Amino acid sequence: MAEETFRRVIPRGTRLRQLLDVEIPGDPPDGSLLLWDAAQGRWVARQITVPAHTHAPADITPQGSGSGLDADLLDGQHASAFAAAGHHHDGTYVKKTGDTMSGTLTIDTGTAGSNILQVRTSATNQYSTAGIEFYHGAPVSAQRDIRFFLENAQAGGGGNANLFLRHQRGSWPDARNILVYNMQTEELQLSGSNLRFLQSPAGSSAGSETAYQIWHAGNDGAGSGLDADLLDGKHASDFAPASHTHPPQNTFATVKVGATNLVADAPADVLELAAGAHVTLTPDAANDKVTIAVGPQGSGSGLDADLLDGQHASAFAPASHTHPNATTTTSGFLSAGDKAKLDGIQPGAEVNQNAFSGVKVGSITIAATQKTDTIELVAGSNVTLTPDAANKKVTIAASGGSSVNSYGVVQVGSTNVAATVPGDTVKLAAGSNVTLTPDAATKQVTIAVSPQGSGSGLHADLLDGYHAGNSSNQVPVSNGTLCNSLNADLVDGYHASSFLLTSGGSISGNLSVSGYVTIGNRPFLFRGKTTSQSIAASTTTVVSFPNAVSQTGPGSWNSTSNFYTVGLAGLYLVSVSVLLNAATGGGRVSLRVRKGGTEYCVYDQNINTNDYVLASGQILLPCAVNDTIDVVIWCSTSRSTYSEGTAGTFNRLQIVFLG
User: Is the pLDDT of residue 130 over 70?
Assistant: First the structure.
């Protein structure tokens, strides 16, 4: 056929074999198409050969989204080489907007050097944070969550920022800030129910550390076990032991009353003055005396005196006595008969000579034997006879004391106070700081030292066996002179065992301090450097700190070798910072604190090219006397330290004794 006409006359998608008017023996050959032969008036099978040719993309229409164009290849790749439009990688990749990883994240830069995981935030609002949360499925919910983050404490980004290590037990504020570092003040705070410092020998395995208590104002005091070195700057040897004794205070061991000695039974024994019958003890605290007097007296008092007007009771007749008539042998009243006889004496009768025909003493009558007989009065014991011829009388008086039991002498110490007359009174007078307390009911007087203590004005001769003064072995007076030999028994009522020695000791109770505790002469070192120092590449170099800022307490600095020698054993906080100038090439910088031959890394970072580096860190070191501390630095690239105007601004070494 010279010309073929192509016409589509069947619905799209209909199989040609279903056309009944097509007569083709067998299946059409591969590549055959049914074409309408207008000359024959039927469909015939024909193979169409299309010569090789190309079309410009623009010749294909329509194109683009919604065109329905179904190409065979895209950039030489079949559709199987591409992912579907709705596919995702949620189970394979981590989303930038936030995701959860079930495996391990490893940052490996190969030989590039620095491996740094950076957690950043551009937020400046108050309490905005950037950090890491560590979480695991512990059975106890309060033990699952630890967070390490940097927090902005002020809106707008100003003010200080704080670095936190926090144990999050539950919803805020149920948490504990284990570590808080103030990046403005560089203050470090640690928190825990019991702070301890772990120490183990170099190279030892985990779990072999020894835990040491960290002492602070909240856990010292009674029962804490804190063994201080000094008390008020003095060692234990400066104080007397709790078992020491003192010689007894000068006192009267014996009070002698008459011939009887009253011996004290103890160093602070009390002598009691007891008022007996008809004795009154009257104390006078103001005048430091006791008046001892006989009383009560007079009618009805019951006082049984030895004499009445110098006469014993036998010299007087009883109240119930009677007077019989006189007889020739017995004196008595004049009888009526005798009266009659007297009346019968005639006037002018001779007057007999004046004389006593008899003298009756008691029941004895001494009769005269003649008209001019003489009776002699003889003074017996303790009786004085004083004749008075002019007045024709003899005075009979008691002399030499009484027969009533009494003390003729009261001995006070080595001094005798003697009675001068019968019934004499000895007066007990209370002196300064002495109180006499009489008790008439028990007939005693209590003599006590009172008042005592501060403001009492008590003027003792000795205090714990020492006189007042400022010489050796004397109690110092308030003139500012120190008596180093004083060894008192008590201070404000307490023994030395109740105090900490300046040389050290332990407190068994709690110590409450309302203000600040200042530890005098505590070891402290602060040094800086204003000149630049060269640091050779890949060489461990001792950092010099030639400029002294401050230093106190035991310990010394070696300016030649740039190391500190410990002068007092204990725990030290070592803080160091070194500012390095920018260097081409960047590389690693490692700053270490060295005690003896052991190095402790406090800073280790890889630095970008041409960056300044402030390498800084701190560490707690337990030190013994004569341990040495210095600082070394290692850089992979040659560098130099920054030259500053004021020592200690950037380049500084601080060593602080903690206890």
Answer: yes
